[in-house]
Amino acid sequence: MATAASPQIDASFASDTESRWQAARRTLNNALVITRREVNDSFRDWRIMTPILVLTLGFPALSQFGANLMLNFVSQYGAELIGERTIPFLLMIVGFFPISLSLVIALEMFVGEKERRSLEPLLATPLTNLELYIGKTLAAMIPPVLASYVGMAVYMSGLLFGELAWRPQPMLIVQIVLLTTAQALLMITGAVVVSSQTNSTRAANLLASFIIVPMSLLVILESIVMFSAPDAESPNGIFSLWVILVGLLIGTALFMRIGTRLFNREVLLSSSLDVINLRWIGRTFWNHLRGRDRPGLLGWYRQEVFPVLRDLRHPALIVLLAAVAAMLGGWMIGQVSDLRLPADVAGDSATMAANFREWYELGSNPTSVLFAVWQNGRVLLAATLLGMVSFGVMSVVLAILPFGILGWVFSQFGLLGLDPGVFFAALIPHSLVEIPAIFLATAAALRLGAIITRRMRPGQTVGEVWLAAAADAVKVGIGLVLPMLVLAALIEVVITPLVVQAALGG
Amino acid sequence: MIEAEGLTKDFGDFRAVDSVTLHVKQGTVLALLGPNGAGKTTTVRMMTSILTPSAGWARIAGYDVTTHPEQVRAHVGVLTEQHGLYERMKALDYLDFFGRLYHLDTATRHTRALALMERFGLSDALGRRLGEFSKGMKQKLALVRAMLHDPPVLLLDEPTSAMDPQSAKLVRDAILELRRDARTFILTTHNLAEAQLLADRIGIIRQGRIIAMGTFEELSRRIVGVPMMELRLRLPLNGLKDEIGDLVEVIETGERWLRYQVTDPEATNPALLRRLTGLGVDVVTLSPLQESLETVYLRIVEEDEKTHGNGSLSPN
Question: Which residues from chain A sit within 8 angstroms of residue B103, using beta carbons?
Fold first, then answer.
């Protein structure tokens, strides 16, 4: 195939017979060439090394001193518990400070290189995008994580072998080390995403606040868990930290997926969020919303709205499964004795029937239609907005909460021996329209939130893809969900009361 | 060695490169000339598989830029518009790093780096950090980097910009030597004298389109028309114009010189010299009277401006 290739050049490429393992090893070897250079470069940069040294040696020693001081102080007042809980909390802080530098290194490594124009020669080498991504991600991670481990070791060594002779629960230490590593991973993978979308360090630093602020909040949450656990070895406390760890790893996986999609030569050389082009945003969104051919209303439904439903099949299936799981979860929670409805609160069937009648008499007026539409609409809008900043996860969580509650209510009917007929009568008529509307809206929100994790066509930008998905969500929202919510509200106000009345025996 | 057909690149609504077609034979140099923002760098980036073409195709050293990007990049040495060196690294470490990326073994990396550094007069700077290099030294080192893996194709963006005349000559000599060694080049440059000196063919790109392509003589003929020859004599003309009127059409005369147009110089000039020898006229020089590349380039660009206007590129 090659006309003038030197044998050395050709030998450096994968042959067709290369196994997956060999390919992975080659990828890693190539990536490590980048990592080695970048790590060496970081170690030569006093701006990185000075804070790392201070945070690795100075800060842990100070924290150790502080921990001793605090423990002695609170012991005087019989509050040893506070001191005991502070020691692991400080360990976490000692570990977190150096890894917060990983964000700076990652941004410097990607955007800094772009800004200094040293990225293009690298992009002109035979390295694959994945090799570049892995190489740079590892390089951003290694110095701060090493510093973090050393810092934690320095901190703990004084407490373990010093006067205090601290004996922590080993699993808690393992969790803190794992959480620290996972936090570094999440920040770096997030930084890669941020870096690939901007051309200046200034803009990247501003965007990085979207990573560091939630991460700081997470550290606060972790410290609350550590402080408020019933005791230092509490399974509840420890379990919560595992949940946070899993959450961090899921977030990292999502960021890695986005990162590997975005970390390509095309995007690196052309993308920029530095300038907000409102006119382009408006035009692109409007073109997607209206459709290029400017169809009439029926044409718009046929050409623009219904085809979106095909793209919503998978998200809708996820929402459906999540809703079923939430109902089952609600039902199972309802079985736990602590969470059951007390028999005297539930009353009897007659009281319940009276409550239902009163409720529907109150709700059977025209303004209730608007209220019902507004109520559902704002929840779905909130779910969409939350989904936009959580890869769609929060939109699903918010939308399935009522299904969890329904599951719990069903379980109470069974446990208290109440007649569920009235309950079903009060739900089913309008739910036949309302639930599909909720599923559609949530599926569109999930797709919008998760769209950036999907592979893009060559030449497509994240902005274009996202705006198209946003336009699709609005199409479904205006074209289908809103009319369905209005119809559901009308049924709820006009038909459901009649059905409930019939169920109550007239 | 380098082929491109209908190569197009769109950035959103903006068409940066529009249906570029070019063929560069092995062992030849193509100079791409054009105003700033004409699409030269984007074309080069597509040829190095850094950017994916929106339409069309290109093959470098037999590899398609879209389907075999890694192989394309392995067979191409690129000198980017901005040399972009790692300022904290030492020169030899820097070359060693890039040598590794091109999968060169340790001995080859070392030998080639030393040889190229010597060739470009950088031997004394091997252990110096790149931040201490002058602009010209950085440019030369970037060129060494591009040549390190001995690629069959070199794409050089402004190879001698920021260089002193001596260094620029070193680079030009290196290009000519590599060309003799069957290396293929695309140069993008604003230095028209350099392009004229080095290039076998010249492409002029404007608003993403190739508006002219050919040898300098072909482009010159397109602008100036039939080539003009200048004949200089030792003695005054003394009615010589009439003596040779049947062979050539004399356009201008001076006391001891005359200029004539010739459509077939290979047939006409030897006949003319024979006639002059027969008449006992002493010829001092006989040379083609050429327009400079600058004049040709400016005329071609001007012509295109008149035809296609000076506005932004057409949206797709």
Answer: 8-9, 11-12, 126
**What is the predicted pLDDT for the residue at A322?**
92
Nearest Cβ partner for B84 among A5, A11, A118: A118
Which residues make Cβ contacts (< 8 Å) with residue A487, sequence separation at least 6? A433
The pLDDT score that the predictor gives to residue A84 is 76
Q: Is the pLDDT of residue A436 over 80?
A: yes
Residue matched to tokens 């290369």: A18
**Residue type present at position A383:** A
How sure is the predictor about A230, in pLDDT bands with cuts at 50, 70 and 90? low
Distance between B173 CA and the closest CA of chain A, angstroms: 22
Closest by CA position to B55, among listed B98, B97, B17, B93: B17
Q: Classify residue B298: in a domain, yes or no.
A: no
Give the separation between CA B313 and CA B208, rounded to whole angstroms: 8
What tens digit of pLDDT does each residue of A402-417 get? 899 888 888 887 777 7
Cβ–Cβ under 8 Å, residues B283 and B273: yes
Find out whether B66 and B8 touch, Cβ atoms under 8 Å.
Answer: no
Q: Tell me what the mean pLDDT of segment A340-360 comes to.
A: 65
Same domain? B90 vs B180: yes
pLDDT at position A235 = 56
Segments of A364-463 assigned E as strands: none
Q: Give how far B76 is from chain A: nearest CA, Å.
A: 8
Can you read off the two tokens belonging to residue A315?
């998200």
Cα A244–A250–A254 angle (5° rounding)?
145
Distance of alpha carbon A72 from alpha carbon A66, whole angstroms? 10
Q: What ipTM was estimated for this complex?
A: 0.79
Question: Are B163 and B20 contained in the same domain?
Answer: yes
| Per-residue pLDDT at A3 | 41
Mean pLDDT to the nearest integer, A122-131: 88
Nearest to A429 by CA among A377, A342, A498: A498
Please tell me the total count of domains within chain B. 2
Question: Is A151 within 8 Å of A55 (Cβ atoms)?
Answer: yes
Question: Which among B49, B62, B84 is the nearest to A120, CB-wise?
Answer: B84
**A6 close to B (CB below 8 A):** yes
| CATH number of domain containing B272 | 3.30.70
Strand partners, B129: B90
Helix/strand/coil for A140:
helix
CB B69, CB B46: distance < 8 Å = no
Q: E-strand spans in B241-297?
A: 249-253, 257-261, 283-289
Same domain, B15 and B88: yes
Beta-bridge partner residues of B154: B77, B185
| Burial group, residue A215, by CB count within 10 angstroms (0-12, 13-18, 19+) | buried
Q: How many CB atoms lie within 10 A of CB B172?
A: 17
- Range(s) of the domain holding residue B273: 228-289
**Whether the predicted pLDDT of A328 surpasses 60:** yes
What confidence score (pLDDT) does residue B316 get?
32
Strands B228-233 and B201-206: unpaired
What is the H or E stretch that residue B179 is in? helix B165-180
**pLDDT < 50 positions in chain B:** 312-316
pLDDT tens-place string over residues A202-221: 777 777 777 887 888 888 88
> How many Cβ atoms from other residues are within 10 Å of residue A86's Cβ?
19
Weakest mean pLDDT among A33-47, A161-175, B145-159: A161-175
Q: Helix, strand or coil for residue B15?
A: strand
Short-list A102, A89, A269, CA closest to A173 = A89
Closest CA to A438 of A391, A382, A389, A494: A382
**Hey, is the C-beta of B97 within 8 angstroms of any chain A C-beta?**
yes
CA triple B41-B47-B53, angle to 5 deg:
90
* One domain for residues B99 and B127: yes
Helix (H, G, I), strand (E, B) or coil at A10: helix
